[in-house]
């Protein structure tokens, strides 16, 4: 009987914490709307875009980068190798938009084992302006991209970021990735910000360049396996905050396969595990798997119908999550609840995988991720 009561109370506590996180995130998030330029000064901005390879939405993301509603900004595209096929697309986009200041820089500065950071160094050094955005090439920038980032800057801010919001999934596994990115990872990141625990996200990062240069420059972001983890620790050490934009930016997904999702989520989990182990440890409790298991144990002990118990737990877990996605204008379909269930079945395995060593894949590079270091094993693509 004691086990039954304990299991029931633990399940209820986890379901309530899940609901509380949704409510906290909802209080921080705003539905997508156009942000008007600030009435005061609109300082010039540099946007550094590290790129590699051609992706399904590359043409569109390039076009968006050249169509921003900001009076003065420059684009610096960074490519590690001159034979990368995306070079032709970037050159063509620059030629089509002569009124936008844009450059393509080729080469790699080996300041860390992080290939993305190495690719960005030359862009950082070439940036002409004091405000610099590091933006992944697959971010679908809205016209008010710069406005939204600048609007989130406060007097006590050290960095402004945006989590990726998955959109345009093609196929079920892409919907599973939406379930990971949107109503799970973005939700908990905004919950953390609401609790004063802002964490950086490398998809879009707005920096004040003089501030970062005075504290080690972009090379300081190589202190951890991932640049966003290093950014979080650096900003916190300065007594400043990491802020998130009110409406996170889209990342169009297209087709996805199970192996891609597994590799990406395993890599991110491993990075969180080695950089913030105390925050990573309870991640096993964030999905529905553990509260469902505890509820079934309690139901079995009390002689309650197991199927009815499971349906109640799933409804309590996923209905608020679907409502959050609907309220914020994120992708939602009749298959979303099923995708969330599959995601939560994967979560315990991904969490367990993160506690063990071994190589993970990072954009074609096999990496071994360790605390304070990341070793590149081999070039595989």
From TrEMBL:
Membrane topology category: Multi-pass membrane protein
Membrane-spanning intervals of the chain: 6-26, 274-300, 306-327
Keyword terms, alphabetized: Glycosyltransferase, Membrane, Transferase, Transmembrane, Transmembrane helix
Gene Ontology cellular component list: membrane
One function term, GO molecular function aspect: ceramide glucosyltransferase activity
InterPro entries: Ceramide_glucosylTrfase, Nucleotide-diphossugar_trans
Example of a GO biological process term: glucosylceramide biosynthetic process
The UniProt record lists the keyword Transmembrane: yes
Pfam families: Glyco_transf_21 (PF13506)
Places the protein is found: Membrane
Record's protein name: Ceramide glucosyltransferase
Pathway the protein acts in: Sphingolipid metabolism; Lipid metabolism; sphingolipid metabolism
Taxonomic source organism: Mesorhizobium hawassense
PANTHER family on file: CERAMIDE GLUCOSYLTRANSFERASE (PTHR12726)
Record's keyword annotation contains Calcium: no
């Amino acid at each position: 009987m004691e086990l039954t009561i304990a299991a029931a109370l633990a399940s209820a506590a986890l379901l309530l914490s899940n609901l509380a996180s949704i409510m906290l995130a909802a209080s921080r998030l705003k539905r997508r709307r156009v942000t008007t330029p600030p009435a005061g000064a609109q300082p010039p901005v540099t946007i550094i875009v590290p790129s590699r390879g051609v992706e399904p939405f590359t043409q569109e993301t390039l076009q968006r980068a050249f169509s921003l509603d900001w009076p003065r900004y420059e684009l610096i595209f960074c490519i590690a190798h001159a034979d990368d096929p995306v070079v032709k697309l970037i050159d063509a986009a620059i030629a089509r938009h002569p009124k936008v200041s844009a450059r393509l820089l080729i080469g790699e500065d080996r300041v860390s084992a992080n290939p993305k950071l190495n690719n960005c160094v030359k862009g950082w050094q070439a940036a002409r302006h004091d405000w610099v955005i590091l933006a992944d090439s697959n971010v679908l920038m809205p016209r008010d991209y710069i406005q939204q980032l600048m609007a989130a800057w406060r007097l006590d801010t050290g960095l402004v970021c945006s989590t990726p919001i998955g959109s345009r999934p093609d196929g079920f596994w892409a919907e599973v990735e939406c379930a990971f990115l949107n109503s799970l990872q973005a939700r908990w990141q905004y919950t953390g910000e609401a609790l004063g625990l802002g964490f950086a996200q490398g998809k879009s990062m707005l920096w004040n360049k003089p501030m970062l240069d005075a504290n080690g420059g972009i090379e300081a972001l190589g202190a951890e396996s991932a640049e966003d983890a290093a950014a979080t620790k650096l900003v916190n050490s300065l007594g400043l905050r990491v802020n998130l934009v009110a409406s996170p930016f889209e990342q169009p997904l297209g087709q996805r396969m199970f192996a891609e999702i597994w590799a990406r989520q395993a890599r991110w989990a491993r990075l969180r595990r080695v950089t913030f182990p105390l925050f990573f440890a309870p991640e096993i409790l964030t999905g529905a798997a553990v509260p469902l298991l505890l509820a079934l144990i309690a139901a079995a002990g009390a002689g309650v119908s197991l199927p009815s118990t499971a349906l109640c737990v799933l409804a309590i877990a996923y209905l608020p999550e679907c409502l959050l996605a609907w309220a914020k204008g994120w992708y939602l379909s009749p298959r979303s609840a099923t995708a969330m269930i599959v995601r939560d079945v994967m979560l315990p395995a991904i969490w367990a995988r993160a506690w063990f060593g071994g190589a993970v894949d990072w954009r074609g590079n096999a990496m071994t991720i360790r605390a304070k270091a990341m070793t590149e094993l081999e070039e595989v693509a």
